[in-house]
């Protein structure tokens, strides 16, 4: 397939607001693609040069790309800026200019050829690489047709996002192979263990469905991490899972470790490879792991060796940096508390009961003798048969400065990406008021007034993820909790993912339409006083007539956050990792249970 034809599918997708229609367009596309090109096409569709966990970036700022365009098309910068300002999108501006030129394009690559060109540009490094990238990109823009040039520009700038999720691609693959969604469940299960849409697309095209069904963990391919349910009262833990194993809950950052013959890679919750940030953890893994290869998880938390106490999250998070890492290690040493085993020496432990996973995990770690020298430490694990025992553990961990407890079902399996009752978290913040935070997706922003008019942003709209419908629904409009610098940063972040129209995966009441739409990419942590009901928000708006909340006279209202304010941007989370609608409903119910 020619890249130009692929771009015509992009254009069709952009023109529809119906998710089902997008699925059908994707199905048609996948059916037309050959086996040897479907992988590259899927990567381009997702706006990446490879699977989600492989970060390959162009390193080209917008100013550099504009300069490349102007040089390649022999344009005056002022002329381009005028068209760009009117179009509001650099890709649209380039398309408009190329449509008006009389010269014919000379390069009509197929998908594989274009993908190779893009890979070569991204791989350029060293002295003079920026200039080389600029020239190579300029040649592609000059030689390709107007439609192709538009999407090339957007792809290179990371703005290709077409408004659908990875799950929509799985639906499209299923429809292309079976004519329905019957493959969706096995595709999704495989994707959670091996999150590579290109790999899955190739297997679907080849009809290798048994291989998809039997997908197993593989070292250096991150597994989408399991999530925990929450309760508002310790008694609920025992109502759900009975006698259980209790671990302390640390307020740090979760990492998944992949180890093979001395080589170590660390992945964050959003599958980003962050190995270079934590050389102290890498050294700890190499010296303490007793296995040829292994995949396991833990929580990294800052530790003060003088007071022998844990540091708060705002201190720990300072270790997440790209520069001056050695200085940060000296100032904030980390302890890595290990709690999960997923794979070891050719054997998957995902479907093994928790007690077995934990037993093998502890035997796989070498103790150094001196605890102060150990980086990897298995979390303390205590059995609790009743709420009194669990409460005692909870009180002890809180007194030690920790967040609370994690209760784990003894025979519970590890379910990648799932939030089920195999894990239950209970934190000191779970009470009648909403003292716990919510992770929300930024859906758009509003132009500022007064002082904020200079920032170009005065408030932003956020939503939660409806994992059943695969859409995002509004929960709050946030206009507080940011400093001047944070407002500028938020505007800059939002504009990277600016959308010319409402993304198809958004459900927003027209009263709340923002001035600028933002594609699903940014996750923020939000604090609020409580969850209330609102007629303008769409999260939880569908309330059945027999729902007990109807007695409040708000059956048609959605959920909203009372006095929402920004805590921080969660760069370690994907949009699909945001607080789910089902979780929000439980949090709302907990408030009434406490009153």
Please give a handful of descriptors for the protein shown.
single chain, 595 residues, alpha+beta, DNA ligase i, domain 1, OB fold (Dihydrolipoamide Acetyltransferase, E2P), eight-stranded mixed sheet, seven-stranded mixed sheet, 37% helix, 21% strand, globular
Helix content: 25-40%
CATH level 1 name of the largest domain = Alpha Beta
Global morphology: globular
Runs in which pLDDT lies below 50 for 5 or more consecutive residues are 543-555
Number of helices: 21
Distance from N terminus to C terminus (CA atoms, Å) equals 62 Å
Mean pLDDT: 88
Question: Largest beta sheet, briefly?
Answer: 8 strands, mixed
CATH architecture of the largest domain, please? 2-Layer Sandwich
Number of domains: 3
Structural class: alpha+beta
How much of the residues is beta strand, in percent? 15-25%
In short, what is this structure?
With 595 residues, this protein is α+β, with helices and mostly antiparallel strands. A hairpin with a 4-residue loop joins strand 14 and strand 15 (471-478). Helix 1 packs antiparallel against helix 2 (19-32) and helix 10 (166-178) runs parallel beside helix 12 (197-206).
Describe the structure.
This protein has 595 residues and is of the alpha+beta class. It is 37% helix and 21% strand. The protein has 3 domains: 3-156, DNA ligase i, domain 1 (Orthogonal Bundle), CATH 1.10.3260.10; 227-427, 2-Layer Sandwich (D-amino Acid Aminotransferase, Chain A, domain 1); 438-593, OB fold (Dihydrolipoamide Acetyltransferase, E2P) (Beta Barrel). The strands form 4 sheets. Strands 13, 14, 15, 16, 17, 18, 19 and 22 form an 8-stranded mixed β-sheet that branches. Strands 3, 4, 5, 6, 7, 8 and 9 form a 7-stranded mixed β-sheet that branches. A hairpin with a 2-residue loop joins strand 3 (253-260) and strand 4. Helix 1 (3-14) runs antiparallel to helix 2 (19-32). 40% of the residues are buried.
């Amino acid at each position: 397939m020619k890249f130009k034809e692929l771009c015509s599918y992009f254009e069709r997708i952009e023109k529809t607001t119906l998710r089902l229609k997008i699925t059908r367009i994707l199905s048609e596309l996948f059916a037309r693609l050959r086996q040897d090109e479907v992988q590259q096409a899927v990567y381009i569709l997702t706006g990446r040069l490879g699977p989600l966990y492989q970060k390959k970036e162009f390193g080209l700022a917008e100013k550099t790309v504009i300069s490349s365009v102007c040089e390649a098309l022999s344009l005056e910068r002022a002329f381009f800026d005028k068209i760009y300002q009117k179009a509001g999108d650099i890709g649209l501006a380039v398309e408009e200019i190329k449509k008006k030129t009389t010269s014919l394009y000379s390069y009509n690559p197929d998908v594989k050829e274009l993908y190779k060109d893009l890979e070569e540009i991204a791989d350029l490094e060293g002295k003079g690489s920026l200039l080389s990238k600029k020239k190579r990109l300029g040649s592609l823009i000059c030689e390709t047709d107007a439609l192709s040039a538009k999407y090339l520009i957007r792809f290179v700038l990371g703005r290709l996002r077409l408004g659908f999720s990875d799950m929509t691609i799985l639906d499209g693959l299923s429809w292309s192979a079976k004519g329905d969604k019957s493959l969706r469940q096995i595709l999704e299960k495989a994707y959670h263990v091996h999150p590579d849409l290109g790999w899955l697309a190739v297997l679907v095209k080849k009809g290798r469905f048994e291989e998809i069904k039997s997908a197993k963990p593989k070292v250096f391919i991150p597994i989408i991490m399991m999530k925990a349910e929450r309760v508002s009262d310790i008694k609920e833990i025992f109502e759900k899972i009975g006698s259980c194993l209790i671990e302390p809950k640390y307020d740090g950052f979760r990492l998944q470790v992949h180890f093979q013959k001395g080589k170590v890679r660390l992945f964050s919750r959003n599958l980003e490879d962050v190995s270079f940030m934590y050389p102290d953890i890498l050294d700890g893994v190499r010296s303490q792991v007793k296995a040829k290869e292994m995949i396991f998880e833990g929580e990294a938390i800052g530790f003060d060796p003088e007071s022998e106490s844990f540091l708060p999250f705002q201190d720990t998070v300072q270790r997440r940096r790209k520069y001056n890492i050695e200085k940060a290690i000296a100032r904030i040493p980390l302890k890595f508390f290990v709690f999960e085993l997923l794979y070891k020496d050719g054997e998957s432990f995902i479907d093994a009961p928790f007690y077995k996973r934990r037993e093998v995990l502890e035997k796989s770690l070498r103790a150094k003798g001196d605890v102060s020298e150990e980086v990897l430490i298995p979390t303390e694990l205590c059995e609790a048969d009743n709420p009194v025992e669990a409460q005692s553990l909870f009180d002890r961990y809180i007194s030690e400065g920790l967040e609370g407890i994690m209760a784990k079902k003894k025979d519970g399996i590890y379910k990648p990406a799932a939030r089920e009752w195999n894990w239950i978290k209970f934190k000191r913040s779970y009470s009648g008021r909403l003292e716990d935070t919510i992770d929300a997706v930024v859906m758009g922003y509003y132009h500022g007034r007064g002082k904020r008019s200079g920032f170009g942003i005065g408030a932003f709209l956020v939503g939660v993820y409806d994992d059943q419908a695969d859409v995002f629904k509004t929960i709050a409009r946030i206009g507080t909790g940011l400093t001047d610098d944070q407002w500028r940063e938020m505007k800059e972040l939002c504009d990277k993912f600016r959308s010319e129209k409402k993304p198809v995966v958004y459900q927003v009441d027209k009263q709340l339409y923002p001035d600028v739409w933002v594609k699903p990419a940014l996750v923020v942590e939000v604090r609020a006083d409580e969850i209330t009901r609102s007629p303008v928000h769409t999260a939880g708006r569908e309330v059945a007539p027999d729902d007990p909340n109807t007695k409040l006279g708000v059956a048609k209202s959605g959920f909203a956050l009372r006095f929402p304010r920004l805590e921080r941007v969660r760069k370690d989370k994907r949009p699909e990792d945001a607080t789910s609608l089902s979780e929000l409903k439980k949090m709302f119910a907990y408030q009434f249970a406490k009153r």
